[in-house]
């Protein structure tokens, strides 16, 4: 009879685990919306730049990759997939990945118009890394065709990159988050700041701990200077420093547990 008791106990444990999984799935399901979340890569990036972050959200069971939108070198948009799932994830790819922030922003605005016209999308979330983080913010300043819901930016070089535009420890921020030195990219964004609109912003930035206060490419001051650009905006702003060797610029979007967890919580709940 002992084996029967053991079997029943084992079945009970499995049942509890299954029920726990169902409960967690139900919790996540409560946050399901038709709002798509776009992933925008940075300078020299590709689909591989966002693959790991998207896969992390899929493994958590909170969202599903359903659509890839590619802008070719001539500026034409190509779609693969559809929007058919709660919390759909949209992977954005720029074939000409070194076009710069102004061109990337125009392409992103084109994508927003496409989502509105093709699917009737009214609002989007967006996640941008590096120069993609600049494009995400700049597009939200340009009166896009859809409403900006949640914007998560990772390693955004809002006040330039190291070492020429923003040498380590050369720039300070005032109480509003404005830098003591403003390169062209910051001035370009600052001139457009009055148009910015979004429900919430999460600013993630890296510090590898080598004394440079940077992720080896973008200083913490450059990333944090986003707050100065949003000084006229009163929405929900959050900032989080990611520390350690995995906080290196190109590793922040590659299986970084801290970043993945922060994105999941910000976009889809606790």
State the domain count.
Answer: 1
Could you please say which CATH topology applies here?
Rossmann fold
Q: Helix- and strand-based class?
A: alpha/beta
Q: State the end-to-end CA separation.
A: 44 Å
CATH class: Alpha Beta
SSE string, helices as H and strands as E: HEHEEEHEHEHEHHEH
From the alpha-carbon coordinates, what is the Rg to the nearest angstrom? 20 Å
Name the shape in a single word: globular
Mean pLDDT: 90
Uncertain runs with pLDDT below 50, 5 residues or more? 1-30
Instruction: Report the helical percentage.
Output: 25-40%
Q: What's the CATH superfamily, by name?
A: Alpha/Beta hydrolase fold, catalytic domain
Provide the spatial order of strands within the biggest beta sheet.
3-2-4-1-5-6-7-8
In DSSP terms (H or I, runs of 4 or more residues), the helix count works out at 8
Report the CATH architecture.
3-Layer(aba) Sandwich
Strand portion: 15-25%
| Counted beta strands | 8
Largest beta-sheet details: 8 strands, mixed
Task: Give the arrangement of secondary structure elements.
Layout: H1 2-29, E1 37-40, H2 48-59, E2 64-71, E3 77-81, E4 88-94, H3 101-119, E5 123-129, H4 131-140, E6 147-154, H5 184-190, E7 200-207, H6 220-224, H7 226-229, E8 236-243, H8 257-268
Parallel strand pairs: 1-4, 1-5, 2-4, 5-6, 6-7, 7-8
Antiparallel strand pairs: 2-3
Helix pairs in contact: 3-4
